[in-house]
Design a protein that fits this description.
heterodimer, A: mainly beta, seven-stranded mixed beta sheet, four-stranded antiparallel beta sheet, globular, B: mainly beta, six-stranded mixed beta sheet, about 55% strand
């Protein structure tokens, strides 16, 4: 069974640009969560989608948004990039949710903002 | 709001000796608690989880954790460390019974030969 895949793996952008990251969950998984990992703030929850609906949201500004498609694939978008958005962005999938089921993480997308 | 505090940012042990990684949680009701591991250049992996069943939870690779409500703790242990255990470990709580996971700051485990 294929694991969680994320594309692209590495990305370099400049301040003010926008970026879209993609996540393909494990087949059959309907819950997709996104996290931001930085050395200073650690791992922080961004949002979680289940069956195309945002079910949970973290404490990030509105520049961070996401969506989930009918095949459970998910994208997250960051608009008007800031230097502080440089981070590893992790996607994870689970059957019904991270609390009740085992959550599987992808390898992440490393975003660098110059 | 639920939160977790990992009491040690770094722990160093010798191969073959016991491992203890400490975690305290705060929660207004019975929490769901997890331990995740992140090996260098590898993805995060679930080690074990507590969801109000048995208080002693067994995970993968010989790790276990005990939920102690009176001490609000969920410490991770392993009887005998192996070199392959060197990694960063995260204590995690599900916030408010939701699917939103709140991660601790992590404990980096070093295993010396």
């Amino acid at each position: 069974k294929a694991g969680v895949t994320q594309t692209p793996r590495y990305l370099i952008k400049t301040r003010g640009q926008q970026v879209t990251l993609s996540c393909s969950p494990i087949s059959g998984h309907r819950s997709v969560s996104w996290y931001q990992q930085t050395p200073g703030q650690g791992l922080q929850f961004l949002f979680e989608y289940f069956s195309e609906t945002q079910r949970n949201k973290g404490n990030f500004p509105g520049r961070f948004s996401g969506r989930q498609f009918s095949n459970s694939r998910s994208e997250m978008n960051v608009s008007t990039l800031e230097l502080g958005d440089s981070a590893l962005y992790l996607c994870a999938s689970a059957l019904g949710g991270a609390r009740t089921d085992t959550q599987y993480f992808g390898p992440g997308t490393r975003l660098t903002v110059l | 709001a639920q939160s977790v505090t990992q009491l040690d940012s770094h722990v160093s042990v010798s191969e073959g000796t016991p491992v203890l990684l400490r975690c305290n949680y705060s929660s207004s009701y019975s929490p769901s608690l997890f331990w995740y591991v992140q090996h260098p250049n590898k993805g995060l992996q679930l080690l074990l989880k507590y969801t109000s069943a048995a208080t002693l939870v067994k995970g993968i690779n010989g790790f276990e954790a005990e939920f102690k409500k009176s001490e609000t703790s969920f410490h991770l242990t392993k009887p005998s460390a192996h070199m392959s255990d060197a990694a960063e470990y995260f204590c995690v709580v599900a916030q408010g019974g939701s699917e939103k996971l709140v991660f601790g700051k992590g404990t980096k485990l070093t295993v010396n030969p």
